[in-house]
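debug: dumping io for the single-chain case to check the tokenizer round-trip. Nothing else runs in this session.
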Amino acid sequence: MTKFSATTPIYYVNAKPHLGHAYTTIVADAVSRWHRLLGDDVHLLTGTDEHGLKIQQAADAQGVSPQAFADSIAPLFQQAWQRLNITHDDFIRTTEKRHAVGVQKLLQACYDAGDIESDVYKGQYCVACEAYFTDDELVEGKCPIHRTPTTFVEEENYFFRLSRFEDRLLQWYADHPQAITPGFRMNEVIGFIKTGLHDFSISRKTLTWGIPLPWDSSHVAYVWFDALANYITALGYGTDDAAFAQRWPVDYHFIGKDIIRFHCVYWPAMLMSAGIEPPKGWAVGGWLLTDGEKMSKTAGNVVDPLDLIDVFGVDGFRYYVLADTTYGNDGDFTLEGITKRFNSDLANNLGNLAARIATVVEKKCGGLGPKPSANSPLTEIAATAVRETSAAWMAVQPSKALEATWQLIGATNSHLENHEPWKMEPGEAVETVMGDALEALRIVTILANPALPTTTQEIWKRIGLSGDISDLRIDTDTMWGQYPGGCAVVKGEPLFPRKTL
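debug: decoded output
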């Protein structure tokens, strides 16, 4: 059985989840669901990043300990992912014992390799990013990401000698040219490496909220050796060698473009130093913008995904996130945008198709769905939809995958409009039309299941089929002609009641 492993970033617990977190997590979940439909042995990891200065400051502001603060926020992410129907297999918290053990093992391995050394750092530091910036990288003297003032910091740190890894990283990427998707992000990473790499700080002496360095307990590990290490500690690095060997390297780190430098340059170099193989790939998404600005807690323009679920439902929200933006590009979130797409794609197309089929089968076929014909004009259209949907999911392009699936929905609606079965008399002719429409809808429910897991399962049940779609397989169950016929078809309540602003 083919293995497929994926990770989301682990999210800071300095505030509750927002739409930007949900975006990356839903994409990772949908791609993982697709691989389960392929029959792959899937493992999806997510979690929370709970150490560092930001958490210490947030805890101090509330008058509680950092651990108590983290314990109050981490469950909000777990609850949000449960509401969003995320099928993660593990949720790692960086305050867990298994994580600390693995972090210290990784640190010691890089230290023993001679790639961690003590030095003094002087430079501009952004607390929100937990990153240093050169003067050239600042925008009008402020952090280029958050547009907030940076702080000049001078202190003794341990440094990872990233500058030693330029040639090794360039060679690795030359040997793995498809490792970063979309491809233009690979060009960005290569360009960054070629401009020259600088050593980076990996510890803090002035901070106590973190994991102590194994050779110098007066320092705690700084964010990159702590947070990034979650990808291996959760799989057993340092605690379960057999499990780690089984799951690493992962197929994809799903990340946002703002953390590409740390994930695609720092992280593989750290792994190389420790004698660990880099991940197979990174899927880099753009930002969801509001009014042209990146959505972030610092900027104060966040959207709570749970508020949108209450209006559009879980599947309606998931569909918008997956369908509206080409993965890798920036998207612009608006209430008008989600409402328009919900009404157009879901209410008018998929929802209307399911309702229309059920209504005609009830009136013209005695409520029992007929079998499809072998030579239906929809046969080739369905095969094309399966092929193009599959290719897009495999390329981590959810919007293109859904567009391909919706081509079959559109063709099936057109098929009904052309034949007007509601005007036919009961008999063989109407049964032929409706059997073909039911078969097309059956295939649609499988193809759309990663995006709309609850709704597609409901449609599956309404057209008289049993079992779980998640147990089906793309290669066999999407072939034309498998709707059995004679199944009770029910209309039910509207799947996607139209929304108004």
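debug: round-trip ok. The first helix runs from residue 19 to 37.
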